[in-house]
Amino acid sequence: MPHLSPISWLTSMFMFWFSVSLLFSSLWWSNNYTFNSKMTSYSSSSSKPWNWS
């Protein structure tokens, strides 16, 4: 394994973490979107006793 300079090592680490965070954020946003739409449809179709005063 060749010795990497600190600049290239930081660049590769940054690109790696950037791609990983991008992947996780896209997964999280898609899950969050479907979850929110399900919860909205569920709450609109059902009665909401916690909103009763």
TrEMBL record:
<keyword id="KW-0496">Mitochondrion</keyword>
<protein>
    <submittedName>
        <fullName>ATP synthase F0 subunit 8</fullName>
    </submittedName>
</protein>
<keyword id="KW-0472">Membrane</keyword>
<keyword id="KW-0812">Transmembrane</keyword>
<keyword id="KW-1133">Transmembrane helix</keyword>
<feature type="transmembrane region" description="Helical">
    <location>
        <begin position="6"/>
        <end position="29"/>
    </location>
</feature>
